[in-house]
Design a protein that fits this description.
The complex is a heterodimer. Chain A is an all-beta fold. Chain A has no helices and eleven strands. In chain B, the strands form two sheets. In chain B, strands 2, 4, 5, 6, 9, 10 and 11 form a seven-stranded mixed sheet that branches. A four-stranded antiparallel sheet of chain B has the order 1-3-8-7, with no helix packed on it. In chain B, strand 9 and strand 10 form a beta hairpin. Chain B is globular. The chains are: A mainly beta, B mainly beta. The interface between A and B is medium-sized, with 24 and 24 residues.
Chain lengths: 113, 111
């Protein structure tokens, strides 16, 4: 089946440092979505990217979708302790959708004050 | 409020016992999903249902069963055939724009 690779698996940063997680698919995606799961919680939708080369911002978070629609990144500027959690990307493939999204394995963000 | 309700939040299962996790949604979504999440790991698809009275196996369906008799309800049974059931179980539905709405999850522990 289709796979979405996400790296790194874990990322330790000092509070105030930047953070980036990357997702890559071997085949073209119809769209890509990002979710955040706080410790002990459930994943919550953050954003969806649809267009080639699309860039979207939410305060300190910047999301990018690659020109070939095969990769995406989430960048957090000046991390805060509230950013702690696991960030998942999830890709939707063209002609797919029947079994939903294909999730990456997530990047665990750990912030040291 | 609209959303997905899972119950119970915590459940303990004895060896050889079947347990059922409840999932109810009032979002009027057609497609529903069950995912399993092991500590520190990603989401693995167990079963999904696109419409009432229809469901399909996901990547790790062995030892699990589901039913979809009503649009609002998609219960998951963890059977005794599932040898390592201790995990966090997430029910979800597919909303507009193909975004996934998750319930708060159920923690299952084998004792």
């Amino acid at each position: 089946g289709q796979q979405v690779m996400q790296i790194p698996q874990y990322q330790h940063v000092q509070e105030g440092e930047d953070f980036t997680t990357y997702c890559n698919s071997s085949t073209t995606l119809s769209n890509i979505q990002w979710y955040k799961q706080r410790p002990g919680g459930h994943p919550v939708f953050l954003i969806q990217l649809v267009k080639s080369g699309e860039v979207k911002k939410q305060k300190r978070l910047t999301f990018q979708f690659g020109e070939a629609k095969k990769n995406s990144s989430l960048h957090i500027t000046a991390t805060q302790t509230t950013d702690v959690g696991t960030y998942f990307c999830a890709g939707l493939y063209s002609g797919g959708g029947a079994d939903g999204l294909t999730f990456g394995k997530g990047t665990h963000l750990i912030i040291q004050p | 409020d609209g959303g997905i309700t899972q119950s119970p939040k915590y459940l303990f299962r004895k060896e050889g016992q079947n347990v059922t996790l409840s999932c109810e949604q009032n979002l009027n979504h057609d497609a529903m999903y069950w995912y399993r999440q092991d500590p520190g790991q990603g989401l693995r698809l167990i079963y999904y249902s696109q419409i009432v009275n229809d469901f399909q196996k996901g990547d790790i369906a062995e030892g699990y069963s589901v039913s979809r008799e009503k649009k609002e309800s998609f219960p998951l049974t963890v059977t005794s055939a599932q040898k390592n059931p201790t995990a966090f179980y997430l029910c979800a539905s597919l909303g507009p724009g193909n975004t996934i709405y998750f319930g708060e999850g159920s923690w299952l522990t084998v004792v």
